[in-house]
Design goal:
The complex is a heterodimer of chains A (550) and B (335). By secondary structure, chain A is mainly α. Chain A contains 21 helices and 2 strands. In chain B, strands 1, 2, 3, 4, 5, 6, 7, 8, 9, 10, 11 and 12 form a 12-stranded mixed sheet that branches. Chain B is globular, with a radius of gyration of 21 Å. Chain B is built from 14 helices and 12 strands. In chain B, helix 5 crosses helix 14. The chains are: A mainly alpha (550), B alpha/beta (335).
Chain lengths: 550, 335
Amino acid sequence: MGWRVAGRAQPVTLWRRPGAISALGLALAIGLLLLAGGAIAALMMAAGAGSGGLSTQAAAYIRHVTLLTFLQASLSAVLALSVAILVARSCWRRAMEWRARYLLLFSFLPVVLPTTVAATGLIAVWGQSGFVSAMLTAAGMPPLRPIYGLGAVLLAHVFFNAPLMLRVLSGALAGIPAAQWRLAAQWGLSDWQRFRQIEWPALRRVIPGLLALVFLLCFTSFSLVLMLGGGPSVTTLEVSIYTALRFEFDMALAGRLALLQLVVCAVIVVLLTMVTGRSWSGGAGHAGRHVTQRGDQGLAARLTDGVVIGGFVVLAVVPVAAVIWHGIGPHLGTILAWPALWQATVTSLVIAIVSGGLATGVALVIAAARTRRFGAGLAVWPLDLSISLYLAVSAIVLGTGLFILLRQVADVFALAPALVVLGNMLVALPFAYRVLEGRLSSLATSHDRLCASLGIRGWRRFRQVTLPALFPELGYAAGLSSALSLGDLTIIALFGSQQFQTLPWLLYQTMGRYRAAEAAALAFWILGLTLATFAICVLAARLAGRRHHA
Amino acid sequence: MRSFLTILTAVAALLLSAGTALAADRPVLTIYTYDSFASEWGPGPAVEEAFEEGCDCDLQFVALDSSIGILGRVQLEGSSSKADIVLGLDTNLMATARETGLFAPHGTKLEGRTSLPVDFADDMFVPFDWGHFAFVYNSETMAAAPSSMQALIDSPDDLRIVIQDPRTSTPGLGLLLWVKSVYGDKAPKAWAKLAPKIVTVTKGWWDAYSMFLEGEADMVLSYSTSPAYHIVVDGTDKYRAAAFDEGHYMQVEVAAMLKSAPQPELAADFMDFILDDGFQSVIPTTNWMYPAGKAGIPEAFSGLITPAKSLLFTPEEVAQNKSAWVGEWQGALSQ
């Protein structure tokens, strides 16, 4: 792509030579592809090494688990969407009120909230000795049944995904031109008519992508199902892979299930990229102008919105509040005296920082290489593929592949620290990449002409022009990937042991022992560390950016 | 990038060395066992102290989160395993374990040293304790417990029980075999009828028992000897084991040494030590089981139920049928 720059006779091709960064990016991408390829090859070999064909019993089991996972993921996605649409509409109607705005701000939390912490909070609210049961008993009613099972898993999935959907749907509603709202107000459209004529066309554009994304997240759900599923009746393919590998040591079954999972996820990822551009990655959106509609101030509308928003608060906010409420107490002192806590804290922080830093670094190099190769008209598909592959290769599939691959040459449990870092880094990579790549390509478009005319290029351009503008995204990517690693219960479930524990693993064990008070304190500790890690990354990047500008 | 990799390697090395740096001079005997055995409340600390008195060595327990997981772990590690001994398998797993070819004969004389209710003669496994599986309940919140497996299965579905996974936990496997020995081919039907009462299936015994004590279930699969713990430690007899008319499945817990043991002499010494008083005398009041050797049984055990009939499959029967029976169980529970 050449730009004709005023004042010069020759067309200036900005990235005629792709340069060192492109080579490095390409090398990293090839490394990532080889790694995934190696893991998949190991799975295929393990799957083939099984004693011939499947027994009918095993085949029936695999069918059953696949069906159950489909059902669960579909239900989760549809439920979360229904909740999110209701709440998004109510919030939009009450956009002028501060509470609704805080709720939207809060809806960011599930992105970084560790699953173990969420499970603790959900049990504190919906468990047999939880908040809701206590209210029921006080009102003279019987307490809730034990929550373990499909109900608990759906609840947890709605808890995690409805806020995510809410953000995107709110953005879509805010993006409707104010003129349409004014017309609706003039014509006095009823609530239902407004929804059909004005809101639905806007929502419809983001819904397929949202559904596909949440379906993918719930289809690959592991730790929530492990913690809340309550045994073999509720499972996902991911959990079955884990039990086959770590419970039954059945490499052939684990390999087969992992390949099945891989194929399904790959199909969903392809569908996801087909139905969406980048719509689902949209942020909270900038609140557009709100035009008061007929009936908005009426008692019925206020009541409905109150119930909807109140219900959402119980669903999404109260569990987090419960973790804080139960967590701050004398038991915080108890757990702070555990040597295991400090060991796990150090381990978790080191893993989070190293894998978060690595994910950001690798994402940055590949994103920079992509921008540059794109500018030079070179193929970028190996770079794209190397990243999106890790959306389809879930943590469990990857870990299982690595496990099978490495056990032939080394002691997997001795390598555990390095494997956990590697696994977490790969899982965070697509998210970090998405954040950085979008910003880098838009920066390239806006800076290309200027830099070319000033003759700033290469490393100098990166340091002086690109980096300062990129700091916020770097901080966000590092914070996000560190927080994800800090909360991970998936990779550690494969490679962890009593000798190598992280904080979520310690919490999972403590929950298993039903030491509720200690578990709550531990959940609070993890929540605090996660938020602090995320905040420090974001703030440090902001500070660094500011210093650069000064 | 390079500095990241350097940090990564350094961290990995640091974490690895931390575990081994402690006892560099004395030879280390490594024993893989299940979590509750190695915990501060289990037999681990007392056994370690007693054995270390007679050797210039450092006994280290590696706690795994379930009993069957011990076997899987050494299978995964193969001959590169650091373990000298595995402790916490049971008779049901003996044939399977023998087939792996990972274990070595113990060379210990068992004859005349055991007090098991069954004949036990094996050149590879040494028994360390035994007991009967039983459902334990709180007599203060549950006035009458079911008096048979059938009565349990026929109980209304609001009875909440918690059990262990037969793929990871020897009690879980024990219950599977218990139901199988009572119902035979009709076991899947029995499981399907039991399923609605199962609150959750845990990975190991400890998780299930903790859940029961927290009041999240009415009954838990444990041992007929579990109430003795509450009598001795908590001073209460409110926890009882339900006696079942059909009889109770029995468990003999065993240990074995690995062919690849890094410390074969120490391992052989320990295998012999298992039936000594130093090991056996701590079993009743720490692992809350009957000692396999000739050790005294505390007073608190006298009030416990004594099953009229003991049920037990041979190790070979279990090895042959385990995967089919576990498949049946899985199928019945996931309806």
